[in-house]
Specification:
Layout: E1 24-28, E2 47-48, E3 55-57, E4 70-73, E5 78-85, E6 94-96, E7 102-105, E8 114-122, E9 127-136, E10 142-144, E11 146-149, E12 156-157, E13 163-167, H1 174-183, E14 184-189, E15 193-198, E16 203-208, E17 217-222, E18 234-236, E19 240-246, E20 250-255, E21 260-265, E22 268-274, E23 287-290, E24 293-301, E25 316-324, E26 331-334, E27 352-354, H2 356-364, E28 371-375, H3 396-401, E29 409-410, H4 416-423
Length: 428
């Protein structure tokens, strides 16, 4: 007997309270199967049967997308082949019961979506036949779509880059949050220990206990497509994923006391650069920041940080080789006007300034996701969330408290052998 399952679900979704659910069982007769027989042995020769009379499916009434679709062979029959496909032709994963009498889908179906099951069965007396079952699942009242990050379209990120998930609907119920976390699957090679943190009701961040390993392959998937999220008709939206490679471990440590930036790559000091940081009243934030972006040149205006135009502190400058570390406007950038103070005094409005040549070198040797840490500043601590990625300033114990599961997870990827086994078609 040949039973197939594998593939992805269709991605069409619908909205509204109800959708027509219908089922058609169409017998497809097949010709006699070739067989060798010496004759006179008392066996029944192969023959065609009406498989629609032999099998029963769960497609009746309001088909709930959150429950498995099932096929059962009756009267001592067995299933020889079952495939369930969505409107895009992709197959829905499923599993055969050990006795061969039943089959069930193993991943949730999409709401308001038409599916076709192709079923082949045998009656145990030499009869074989095929039939189809068509049905449409009921519509969802709400669909929870998930936007994953990083979403900047790059192949490689720094060791500090967190993973993010933005939900289309707020989730506050602890049990539902656990479901969401379980459906956000993180895998990496090599594997690490990490955890999700609920920033608010719609945003989650994932980070390892320590920085990502250099060279790691990381993948984040939303696997909650079709999942019944709550008791109010909310179902998980289409599956999606992001993947990237982790680059060298780049850490730039800015010491506001000595006015020196120490640049390390994979633990080795590569460069030491004289800098200036924020002056009194504009002190640079202490703590670990993650590179958010880089701009070859950017217009910086004092009004964006609350300094009124015409004030003695006002400025309007075109700045080169700018590496952003906060959304509020903190950069590591070229500051040719303050070269005399670099390595000597702190005279900026909060950014880390250096010579044009040094800023260009820094720009060319860093990437999004790299670490910039400021120490010994008299400024406030970097915000954990909302002004960039201050995730690494949260202790691991406190980070785990922000997880609905309340415990770390391993990012082990499924063994290739297990994946291969899951797609094999058992022979009976």
């Amino acid at each position: 007997m040949d039973v197939r399952w594998a593939g992805d679900r269709g991605s069409s979704t619908g909205r509204g309270r109800h959708a027509t659910v219908w089922l058609v069982l169409t017998p497809l007769l097949v010709g006699p199967l070739a067989a060798c027989s010496g004759g006179g042995n008392g066996t029944t020769p192969p023959h065609s049967i009406d498989a629609g009379r032999l099998v029963h499916t769960s497609a009746a009434g309001d088909t709930d997308p959150g429950k498995p679709f099932t096929v059962t062979a009756q009267g001592g029959g067995t299933l020889t082949d079952v495939t369930l496909s969505g409107p895009d032709g992709k197959q829905v994963a499923g599993a055969l019961d050990p006795d061969g009498h039943g089959w069930h889908s193993t991943t949730p179906l999409l709401p308001a979506t038409h599916y076709t099951a192709r079923i082949a069965a045998a009656d145990g007396r030499g009869g074989r036949g095929q039939t189809t079952a068509d049905f449409t699942t009921k519509a969802a009242d709400k669909t929870l779509t998930v936007t994953l990050g990083p979403d900047l379209g790059r192949d490689t990120y720094g060791v500090g880059e967190p993973l993010t998930a933005e939900l289309s609907e707020p989730i506050s119920d602890p049990a539902v949050r656990q479901q969401v976390e379980k459906a956000l699957t993180v895998t990496s090679t090599p594997a690490v220990t990490g955890a999700w943190y609920w920033v608010d009701d719609k945003n989650l961040h994932f980070r390892p206990k320590d920085y990502w390993p250099t060279g790691a392959k990381v993948k984040l998937e939303w696997t909650g497509q079709g999942l019944e999220i709550d008791d109010h008709g909310t179902y998980g939206g289409p599956a999606t994923d992001v993947a990237f490679t982790v680059g060298d471990r780049v850490e730039a440590v800015v010491d506001a006391a000595s006015d020196q930036l120490t640049f390390k790559r994979n633990g080795a000091v590569v460069n030491t650069i004289p800098v200036t940081t924020g002056k009194p009243g504009f002190d640079t934030r202490n703590g670990i920041k993650v590179v958010l972006g880089q701009e070859r040149s950017v217009q910086m205006k004092s009004e964006t940080i609350g300094i009124a135009q015409g004030s003695s502190e006002a400025y309007d400058l075109n700045v080169e080789w700018a590496t952003r570390v906060t959304w509020s406007g903190e950069y590591v950038h070229a500051a040719p006007w303050s070269v005399a103070s670099q390595g000597v005094a702190n005279v900026s409005h909060g950014c880390t300034g250096m010579s044009t040549d040094n800023a260009k070198w820094f720009y060319q040797n860093t990437r999004i996701g790299d670490i910039v840490q400021v120490v010994n500043s008299k400024g406030r601590q970097m915000e954990p969330f909302g002004n960039g990625f201050g995730d690494w300033n949260v202790s691991w114990d406190d980070w785990l408290k922000g997880s609905a599961l309340g415990k770390p997870v391993s990012t082990d990827a499924p063994p290739e052998a297990a994946q291969a086994a899951a797609t094999l078609r058992p022979q009976f």
